[in-house]
Amino acid sequence: MQSKDAIPVLELKGVSKSFGAVVALRNADLTLHAGSIHAVVGENGAGKSTLVKIMAGLYQRDTGTFEMDGHPVSFRTTAEAKAAGVAVIYQEPTLFPDLSVTENVFMGRQPTGRFGRIDKAAMRAEVVELMTRLGVRIDPDRITQGLSIADQQIIEIAKAISLDARVLIMDEPTAALSGVEVDRLFAVARSLRDEGRALMFISHRFDEVFALCDTVTVMRDGTYIDTVPTAETNVPAMVRMMVGRDVNELFPKQAAEIGRPLLEVTGLTEPGVFSDISFTVRSGEIVALAGLVGAGRSEVARAVFGVAPFTTGSVV
Cα–Cα distance between 222 and 228 in angstroms, integer? Predict the structure, then answer.
């Protein structure tokens, strides 16, 4: 990790953005250094997405300064941001499903040979090299339709690296990933950090922030609150900054009178989808249905609600 005395790769100071009478950002600050992973946390509506869109060229700031490598910048389009080396990896990538991995990586900038034809061999060779650098195995000739969200995110990262992105913004990338996929994504993120790139990581999961990130910026109601090294803070302190009050005031446990069963699911089965699911929900009770992505939670809920079939079992 580089010294914090070095010139930041990207820095915003006192940035504000309003939409009519609605103020989305108030005097927001953010500093990203090369060779560092920087988390940005805050409740929904804290201004994180607005900040990202200003960095990506989707929005223009109303006030404040925006610099890269110590020089003022003002992106009017996403193309300008990409040309300057800023890339955003969203929670749900937007790839072309009917094109191959290689074609998606080089969309809109395919290299050509002597006679103006697309050099497919050169494209494929570079994608193989990119995947090797990232330490992942994804067939460059595979059609992207049907790939997992995790693999699609890796393709987006490969695309950004092929464009020599120096700042990668990862906007809640783990929301739809399993534990194994999160570990792989974190390994890729650390390898990019070690190459000297600056990463910004947005997440609501504090364990991920502390496991991956070097520093964290906290925002609340569109306002910058503080930036601290993750090694010098903890979850209660971060939550206190996010909501403006102590952790023990959040969602206090209240006594509830548990009544008669209102929903009884017994032996619910749909072959290949879910099997032998049973649970009871009583009045005055909150029941959680938990599991990894692909475990069948949504399918069970749809079956109980009546919009998806089940073969055996009962819902009373």
Answer: 18
